[in-house]
Each structure stands twice: as C-alpha cells, then as structure tokens.
Design a protein that fits this description.
Elements: H1 2-39, E1 45-49, E2 64-69, H2 76-86, E3 93-97, H3 103-112, E4 114-118
C-alpha cells in the first residue's frame, strides 16, 4: 500500500512541476505576443486576462487570453498566426480585439486584466 501512495505522490508532484513549467512558458509567450502585436501590427495597448493572471488558476488546459487595442481588422488573422507560432505546444490563444468586444467582456478586462503594453505619448 505504501508503494502505491508514494507512486501517486510522485505523480502529483510531477504533474505540478509540468503545470508550473507550462505556466511560465505561457507567460513568456504572452509577453512575446504583446511585443509582436505592438512592433509588427501597430497595437496601442495589450492586456492579459484569464487564468494566466494567477498561477493557482492556471491548469494544463488553460489558454492565453489577450485583449488588444489598435489592431487593424485586416491584420487580425495574420497577427493570430504569428502568435500561434510562439505558443507552447498544446496551449491555445484567445485574441480579443477590444474594439469588437462586448461591454461585459470589456468591463471584466478593464477590471481584472493586466496591461502588458501601453503606448504613451512622450508629451501630453
């Protein structure tokens, strides 16, 4: 019986290590995605929201939730394709143009989201 318990504890510990590693990889990808959206696609503001905001909420089935301001409609799928290429294997993306988001989703993003990038003018 003890061997069984030890084996399960080892498995749980291994699963937790994988989850934490995937969280870090997903967070790195989100930051990289924000840079791509700004540098290559002219976004003015990029938010992170969803389970990636808190490691305790993140699971191996979580995706990367990013909201973006200033992304031209005609560039959406090209930007999405670029971001897909940098994501860890098995992690999806939810890229939300804020200009097209519903009011309740916008309110949630503004309330709990974290700004990954915000373009500011040097002088007001």
């Amino acid at each position: 019986m003890m061997d069984y318990v030890i084996a399960w504890k080892d498995r749980i510990r291994g699963d937790e290590e994988k989850r934490v590693k995937l969280f870090q990889e997903a967070m790195d990808a989100a930051i990289h995605a924000a840079q791509i959206l700004v540098d290559e696609f002219g976004a003015s503001k990029v938010y992170l929201f969803g389970s990636l905001l808190n490691i305790d909420d993140f699971t191996i089935h979580s995706d990367v939730d990013i909201a973006v301001e200033g992304l031209k409609v005609e560039l959406y799928f090209k930007a999405l394709n670029h971001i897909w290429a940098i994501l860890p294997r098995g992690v999806g993306i939810d890229l939300v143009p804020l200009e097209d988001a519903g009011e309740s989703l916008k309110a949630k993003i503004f309330e709990i989201g974290a700004i990954l990038y915000e373009k500011r003018l040097a002088y007001p």
